[in-house]
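Exercise 7.
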Amino acid sequence: MAAIDTIRKRYQAAGQDHLFAFFPKLSDEERSAFIRQLESIDVDRVNKIYKKAVEAEKEITDPKYVADTIEPLPVDACESVVNNPSNESKWRQAGLEAIARGEVGVLLMAGGQGTRLGSSAPKGCYDIGLPSHKSLFQYQAERIARLQTVAETTHNKPKGSVVIPWYVMTSGPTRRETETFFANHNHFGLNPKNVIIFEQGTLPCLTMDGKIMLETTSRVAVAPDGNGGLYAATRSPLSPSDRSRSVLTDLSSRGVLYVHAYCVDNCLVKVADPVFLGYCITKQADCAAKVVPKSSPSESVGVVARRGDKFSVVEYSEITKDQAELRNPNTGELMFNAANIANHFYTTAFLRSVESFENELAFHIARKKIPTIDLETGAAIKPSKPNGMKLEMFVFDVFPFTKRFAVLEVARNEEFSPLKNAPGTGSDDPDTSRRDLLAQHRRFLEQAGASVRNGVEIELSPLVTYAGEGLDSVKGRTFTKSGHVENVEELDALL
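Solution. The predicted structure, written as tokens, is:
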């Protein structure tokens, strides 16, 4: 009972003692589960986050508030491989050197379920309809495997000696299914020791006046803390049985200095892209963003820009129509052109430093309809209008705190095809993802000197080529049949 009294005193001091309203009526099993949940919540941190979020919202909605001026990226802050590929080979070499030295890790924001795709499975399990029927997870795993091989070959390393550890951040509801999916597919050929699955954090849902909400009489209502929760998640224990090991300690023990982070729902993502890594290492960046040119002035996408004297992602709703349509008089390109694609670089040192300024970050408030209970009767309440708030941090909220920030522009058709919408939507759906990936594979073959007949679709396994390399043998050949290949020799059957 002593432990319960200690916890209750902590919640009482924090003004959250109402959570114990039904405690005397709970069964022993319910009490144990409830206490475990309450122990896992840092109630003082929750109160601080609420206070900071409300104050920040109040400040920016004050009529007297003067917002920082939003300006395009300075010319020297962004380089491009789209119109200026001359540095690409130099950056690729620097990136491959870091990979070969074992200094690179990958952090995947695997997100939640593919609900909008009509699937209840984790998004990474989704099959976009390729001839191979490989999932997004498998494609990304095989890109890692191929890149390890390329680094070994390029730097005369023994087979199997180069490792790019893969840190997969799931939500609470998708963790177990993700672990099972990886295990059932033998981790897609990767060593299980180098695939670390961990969980995004949650925060309690709060009433409008900051009181923690109960979902049931014995459970606090919680919600994911946004993709920016990855920073706190990298500090959290990977397992309840070993509280000393976290993503950050694992990175350190492996000697990983650089981390590439990305979202699962982009079938074209270049996982641990050596060009991006080499660019960032060369620029001595502590944090960086990969961007693509906006498709049009009105595209509903956040852009990397300057807010005052700080780098930031500015939402499309914050930019006026006139600003969105501004063009560079010399190039004709949009001034606000750096579309954010949630594709980032960090030094491990920067990831460790986030904790030191996290108190300065204001979480974003999302007012929602949150199922809860009546604190007098315990009866379930299903609200018809927003009755509470969820607090979220975005992954780019740390950008203003970077000392050396860099931006690299890449070609949209080579690196960005998001999967957001249900099949048949016509944009950012499984059909457009499939189309864009197979179009890229056609380009790989044609750039290697092959011809591909109209209507022929050839899928190249990532184990065959990461970015078009290793296809010298197809030069002068004409492919007349569709299919997918797992090695270069299988292409002979498609002539």
